[in-house]
Amino acid sequence: MKNGIVKEDGKLIYYSNGVPSHAGAIKIDDDIYYVGRNGYVATGQHIVHGDMTNGLLKRGTYTFDENGKLIEGSFHPPKKITHTHRRTESKKDKRHNRKFRIKKRRFALLVSVVIAAVLLIGFAVYVDRLTSNSESSSEVSSEQNISLPDFDTPINLCTVPAQKLFSKEVTMADIKEADVYLPFEFNYRLTDTDGELLISENQNLSNPQKYILAKNKTSVSIHNLKTGTTYYYRVDIGKESFSGSFETAEGTRYIYIPGVYNTRDIGGYTTLNGNKIKQGMIIRGTEMDGLVDASYFLSHKDVESVQEQFGFVYDMDLREPWVHYGEYTSPLGENVGQKFYQAPAYVNVFSEPYKDVVKDIFTDLSSPQNYPMYLHDTNGADRTGTIVYLLQGLLGMADDELIREYQMSGLHKHEFATSERMESVAEIIEDFRGNTTAEKIESFLIDEIGITKDQIDSIRDILLED
User: How crowded is the C-beta side of 323, counted as CA atoms within 13 Å?
Assistant: First the structure.
């Protein structure tokens, strides 16, 4: 029975009781190794996740040699500065140097006064702007000395390149890999005591998100708000309360989940029939367990906050089941349903061997008890992109938006920015009966896959707003 590190076909594999094992940081004969998916022992530079350090390393990026051993770093203390002896000064030199030092001190004092005056004027201008800016202060309490935002325009929840992509000012050909997500920064000024912020989609502030407004800070970051939505807020400070509202701009709803990438909501889009696809029902993205790509990893410490925001009950995992050995539990929690589908990508979705898989996927998409769900493969682009294309097309999105939504994965990895592979899917869809893409995809699912009309109606009832 194999145990320990074995070299096979030029690769280092870690075996435990005869099985390749994903072990994280391990120590063998005083040397530290890092064992990733399928028992592969890391060489070169590698990210070590917090849950995989096993107390041997801190979370971070490390370098391992060709045998998998951690290369110890070296610490170079700063050199001690030694002062050389001054030469002996003559009396004339001393008088000259004394006069020079006096002039130098006077000049430094004058410069300090000028700088202080400039800073004072600048601070006064800053305070004036802070209390008059459209996204700064409108309601002020003399008792608590508080400034709260007054929002005149919708809040953008993505970066400028992503905004231009959504508004069709640019195409993916104009954009390389780029950060797209922006949190909402609630700016305030509060000096006497801490406060509490409540934010809700409901005007009566039911089921609010709650945040502490610390008096020693000026803003709080609020993550994963929905796009194109009106939010209501209230700030409680002692016995006083201040209320208001703001709108978020229309656009793709990019999602922030720590350690997980290429994440966005499939909802928020308006269909050709004028319906909107619901947000918060399906979030798409990369894997969360680092089994295939160790850089995609949701730490256990972040699961609770993720579930507070999204409440996932199902993990629709489009990967192959053999990415994991033994029993598998979703990183989202043991109470979250999970299934490996081994889904097809691109034109393979029409292949005979995958018909049962596609039927299984869309059958589970028609079950209300599977929502909200996290939908993913490894990179959240190929298999995920194919299934989302069919799903959003079935819901009635325009053809150009379907292609563009797929291409947005190129903002994470530019290799996915080209549309040829998904356009090949669109060409085959064109051969099915129906006048629109939605009707053609429906025909494909009913005639070729065996999905029923009732199941398709259920999918639309679940994911389209009234």
Answer: 22
